[in-house]
Specification:
It is a single chain. The chain is an alpha/beta fold and 238 residues long. The chain has one domain (38-65, 85-235): Rossmann fold, CATH 3.40.50.300. The protein has six helices and ten strands, in the order βββαββαβαααβαβββ. The strands form two sheets. The chain has a six-stranded mixed β-sheet, sandwiched between helices. The longest helix is centred in the last third of the chain and has 18 residues, at 176-193.
Length: 238
């Protein structure tokens, strides 16, 4: 008899509202969700569906209006800003649509910025190896293509050895061919490190890479699909 996996994240009735003039915008409406170690999850939804809000709350960049979010035994929904900062520093790697590299630093030094403040980081050159850019370690961002810059950003995100890698439209600024290379790098990290990967996107093709696909609509989970045969990025029909 198999033992049920313990969730890394567990959200219960997670809601987020924002005041807007005389009205209230309900970005999330009672989300119940579990995310487990070693999963590759894609969250799909149109603009305004709540996917960025959910990602920000999972990453400790925002807090819910109501409901609870547990990370292992830590109640993130009850944490103050100091505790959330510690959570982000030790457990979360972020990859955004835009790379946010420091132009005056080499690839290696951009990664080193993160590894120097983490408790149990990997070697910066190892992080670059995982995204296939160890031979670009001494290059500056201006000497790299857009896809290479995004892979350096991924290396920076994983350099701290995070428990979860949260990706917000990581291929949104890239062409199809370059986007596939970036997604292959994310998949390699998932495969080699066993990191929980969560990608939010409006691109349904990316969902074919995932173990689980969560579809959001109007701040609610519309459907969750299991994928028994995840595909490599190079085979996706964009």
């Amino acid at each position: 008899m198999s033992v049920p996996r313990r969730p890394l994240f567990e959200a219960k009735q997670l809601s987020k509202s924002y005041p807007m003039g005389d009205s209230v915008v309900h970005a999330l409406r009672g989300i119940d969700l579990q995310l487990h170690e070693g999963e590759f999850v894609v969250i799909l939804g149109a603009s305004g569906s709540g996917k960025s809000t959910l990602l920000n709350i999972l990453g400790g960049l925002d807090t819910p209006t109501s409901g609870t979010l547990m990370f292992r035994d830590q109640d993130l929904s009850a944490c103050d800003e100091h505790a959330l900062t510690e959570f982000r520093r030790e457990h979360v790697g972020f990859v955004f649509q835009f790379y946010n590299l420091i132009s005056g630093l080499t690839s290696l030094d951009n990664v080193r910025l993160v590894t120097e403040i983490a408790n149990a980081p990997m070697e910066p050159i190892e992080a670059l190896r995982l995204v296939g850019l160890e031979n670009r370690a001494t290059h500056y961002p201006a000497q790299l293509s857009g896809g290479e810059q995004q892979r350096v950003a991924i290396a920076r995100a994983i350099g701290k050895n995070p428990s979860v890698l949260l990706c917000d439209e990581p291929t949104g600024a890239l062409d199809v061919k370059t986007g596939a290379i970036v997604l292959d790098a994310i998949a390699r990290i998932h495969r080699e490190l066993g990191t929980l990967v969560v990608i939010i996107t409006h691109n349904a093709a990316i969902a074919n890479m995932a173990n689980r696909v969560i579809r959001l609509s109007d701040g609610q989970i519309a459907r969750i699909d299991e994928n028994l045969n995840p595909q490599p990025a190079s085979t996706l029909q964009w």
